[in-house]
Automatic annotation (TrEMBL):
Gene3D superfamilies: Glycosidases. It comes from Halalkalibacter hemicellulosilyticusJCM 9152. GO terms for cellular component: cytosol. Pfam families: Glyco_hydro_1. One of its GO terms (biological process) is carbohydrate catabolic process. PANTHER family: GLYCOSYL HYDROLASE, LP05116P. The lineage of its organism: Bacteria, Bacillati, Bacillota, Bacilli, Bacillales. SUPFAM superfamilies: (Trans)glycosidases. Keywords: Glycosidase, Hydrolase. It comes from the Bacteria. This is Beta-galactosidase. The keyword Metal-binding does not apply. Belongs to the glycosyl hydrolase 1 family. GO terms for molecular function: beta-glucosidase activity.
Length: 433
């Protein structure tokens, strides 16, 4: 395998709501804090990255890494409809300037799951009006900060609503038991919590009171999405891309998708093809004018003659319940490259584990797959491990540990793990040992 070049972007990723803390104007903050919340715990101060971003970026730099993917929080920039907060723009300007000062390439995501609460009360991610709102927000951010941003991911995991809809459809009408709950957590690349129907009903009643809406009309980014909602998400991407290019055509614009390595046993080919269309191929018409694609992969799914086959008791699993299978990343990149003849950035790849030796092994095997793909001629610009820090994993709270850096949340003290040094050493040498 050829070594990674000096220009190859290698680093780690975060999302604003998961690390910054006190994102009080977002829909997720509301959902975490209502009575009977489906969230294991609220995010609160998270890991205080909002105030400690220099320390965290410096740890990344000290390890030898050169890229940081992070998100700008819409709920901070536009806490109320039509009112932009210049102080928050100044904050993200400081983050970007610090990246450049440290020779770190910033990859900015404009929407990473959380939205301003007011967007949801205006109809959320099933409303035509959200297209205009997102375009206006994107245009404002790039007008203010675009000279500091080389790469923009408009929307993180734009296909997530469809994946959630499939899970909910499969599990609808059942009182979820512990085995079903474990299956659901391993069936989607995000921290969700599936509870018994009675608690879910109480939760949605509380949400309705919080948002002043019929709970059936609340459409956050993580709600199961209709086909019209899928179109709206992708129209938001198109509108944002157009605005970004009008303001600053030098910025490279893309989107990210949650992608499994779908594998077929005899008879399972039709299920793999269906999953590939739903996860990726159906979105191709919307991204033809993009500059790059963000690939996000954590595991594989195996399909037989009767559909998806759950991992058995002998399967090695991660803490999230995914199969431990680092080779999935290379397989997904190869699949994508057959339909996407433009640059790829691995914008998320990683695992939750309490054993950092497992993380080191995972990184080594995953990056070997990336190198193989590059040797085959596939254009891959970079790799950002998920995540830089142990952080708030949505409905599952703080138990999941994806990070290259551990955090004692009582003191907010950072403890870099061996995996951070390992990834940095690969960047410095270009070689996987």
């Amino acid at each position: 395998m050829k070594p990674f070049s000096n220009e190859f972007m290698m680093g780690a990723a975060t999302a604003a709501h998961q690390v910054e803390g006190n994102n009080v104007n977002s829909d997720f903050w509301a959902m975490e804090n209502v009575p009977n919340s489906m969230y294991k715990e609220p995010s609160l101060d998270a890991v205080d990255h909002y105030n400690r971003f220099k320390e965290d970026i410096q740890l990344l730099v000290d390890a030898g890494l050169n890229t940081y993917r992070f998100s700008i929080e819409w709920a901070r920039i536009e806490p109320t409809k039509g009112s932009f907060d210049h102080n928050e723009i100044d904050h993200y300007r400081a983050v970007l300037e610090y990246c450049h000062e440290k020779s770190v390439t910033p990859i900015v995501t404009l929407h990473h799951f959380s939205s301003p609460k007011w967007v949801i009360t205006e109809g959320g991610w099933e409303s035509e009006s959200t297209i205009g709102y997102f375009e206006k927000y994107s245009r404002y951010v790039v007008t203010e900060l675009g000279d500091l941003i080389p790469y923009i991911c408009t929307i993180n995991e734009a296909n997530m609503g469809k994946q959630i809809a499939k899970i909910m459809k499969r599990m609808s009408g059942s009182h979820t038991n512990s085995s079903e709950k474990k299956e659901s957590n391993g069936d989607i690349q995000v921290g969700l919590n599936v509870e018994v129907k009675e608690k879910m009903e109480k939760y949605y009643r509380a949400l309705g009171a919080e948002f002043g809406m019929d709970p059936r009309n609340i459409q956050t980014f993580h709600n199961p999405r209709t086909e019209n909602g899928e179109r709206i998400i992708m129209n938001c991407h198109e509108a944002a891309r157009k605005a970004i290019k009008e303001v600053n055509p030098t910025i490279k614009v893309g989107i990210t998708f949650s992608l499994y390595d779908h594998q077929a046993l005899p008879g399972g080919e039709k299920f793999v093809l269906q999953e590939q269309h739903e996860d990726f191929l159906d979105y191709l018409p919307y991204i033809q004018d993009d500059d790059f694609l963000g690939v996000q992969n954590y595991s594989r799914k195996i399909h037989g003659a009767n559909g998806y086959i759950k991992p058995d008791e002998n399967t090695r699993l991660t803490k999230m319940g995914y199969e431990y299978y680092p080779e999935a990343l290379g397989n997904v990149i190869r699949f994508v490259s057959k339909h996407w003849n433009k640059p790829i950035i691995v914008t998320e790849n990683g695992l939750s584990t309490d054993n950092d030796e497992e993380r080191v092994e995972f990184i080594e095997r995953a990056l070997a797959g990336v190198q193989d793909c590059m040797d085959e001629g596939i254009q891959i610009l970079g790799y950002t491990y998920w995540s830089l820090l142990d952080n708030f994993e949505w409905q599952l709270g703080y138990d999941q540990t994806f990070g290259l850096i551990a955090v004692d949340r009582t003191t907010q003290t950072r403890y870099p793990k061996e995996s951070l040094s390992f990834l940095g050493e690969i960047k410095k040498t270009g070689i996987i040992k």
